[in-house]
Amino acid sequence: MRVVLGSILTISTWAVIQFGGASYATAGTQEKPPSKRTPVVLNSLLGLENPNDRLLAGNVLTEGQIQLGRLLFFDKRLSIDQSIACASCHIATVAFTDSRPVSRGVRGLTGDRNAPTIINRVFGKQLFWDGRAATLEEQSLGPLVNSVEHGFLVYDDVVKTLRSIRGYRKLFMEVFSENITIENIGIALANFQRTILSGNSPVDRFDYGVDLNALTQSAQRGFRVFQGKGRCIRCHAGPNYTDEQFHNLGIGWESSHVDLGRYAITHQPEDIGAFKTPTLREISRTAPYMHDGRFNTLREVINFYNHGGVKNPFQDNTIGSLFLSDEEREDLEAFLTALNGEGWQHVLPPASFPK
């Protein structure tokens, strides 16, 4: 347990915007509602860094950008056959995953990797499982021109699709003071996703001394396993429980077709078979697990690590047999489940879309 309490950002002069309980605030007042260009401040949640400190230089979030990004995120017209939205693989009710081993895109095509949650991506670096995107804007646009995901051939086709919709032309002009561009599509999508947070979990309330009864005895023992014998904290470190780095655990190494992971981007031998460390926040809600979605339960994941992963010439040297007892594995699972928090449940699909 920490010796000082974590601080929840107090906003006294800002009005909280509610689209189902949004986790940010604007400079509007009851007398003068916020406009589409009103700047917003992301709320800090117990256990997290201040998300406003992680915004790109010059990126001033506005109410209009966030609301526009929400519309784009849920709009299936942002795919070549109007069958797939960002929200199709990042479903709000299941912590912005899709509960599938690998995601399904346009024309029923399937990819090779599991859809990770977008929760707390404001803190992320080198996005996607292989880290090929440097910014959330870049990551948000990538799937649009992926032949399996949204299916557009080039970004110009995305822009043409949105420019054909009068309501979107009007909204982009109101929000950005210019016609629709691919850059502004990326900004809107990314800034909406930056509002989707998870903090103030039972672990946070216990760890910061806010509620010493927030964790069961089993979860408290699991916390100690997590930090000690289980060695989980070597990679799942920091407020977001990830080092934002890439590691080879041996997943898929027994297959005839090995996904090379980070190596396909860097061409560095040490990155062969390495994949991004995901956040553990909301982990019990984001099954199935690993980059190929092979494990359906947390217990399977814990057992995999307990056995030392799958040996291969490039396996990360932090991976090895843990020799956890049945009780220790049960306690560790109780701790991981207690990382479920709040800050994302407010997001609801729009009632209607621009016409």
Number of helices: 11
**Number of DSSP E strands:** 5
Over all CA atoms, what is the radius of gyration? 21 Å
Biggest sheet: strand arrangement: 1-2-3
Amino- and carboxy-terminal Cα gap:
52 Å
Major sheet, described briefly? 3 strands, antiparallel
Assigned CATH architecture of the largest domain? Orthogonal Bundle
Shape descriptor reads globular
CATH class of the largest domain: Mainly Alpha
Report the oligomer: single chain
Break the fold down into its secondary structure elements and pairings.
Layout: E1 15-16, E2 24-26, E3 40-42, H1 63-74, H2 86-89, H3 136-141, H4 155-163, H5 166-176, H6 182-193, H7 202-207, H8 217-227, E4 246-247, H9 263-266, E5 275-276, H10 298-306, H11 326-337
Antiparallel strand pairs: 1-2, 2-3, 4-5
Helix pairs in contact: 1-6, 8-11, 10-11
